Amino acid sequence: MASKEYQKLKEKIKKEYNDFAVSIEKLDKRTIIEKAKEIYIMQEVKMVFETENIFIPKEALSFLMNDDINAIKELTEIILDAESVEFYCENMEMAIEEIQMKMES
């Protein structure tokens, strides 16, 4: 069973994605095309949090739950740096590990 904090993170990511989806409607087609990879990854991040239980260390969870942090954007930016456009749960785990290492240093 997932912790309350993890459940709150899932809800936060869902809300952030919904806010992002609304903002897309205001963009012109060219900008949407330019942001296609980012949009795709955000959708995948949201889907992973809806369907999977991802282990997130406490420090990384606290970081992502910070009100000043847009969790879905933070995870998406790390995954955008990956070589492949393909999305895998491993990409999510890599992003979480990178956040954890940032928190430990």
From TrEMBL:
Q: Tell me the domain of life.
A: Bacteria
Write down what this protein is called.
Uncharacterized protein
Taxonomy-wise, where does this protein's organism fall, top ranks first?
Answer: Bacteria, Bacillati, Bacillota, Clostridia, Eubacteriales
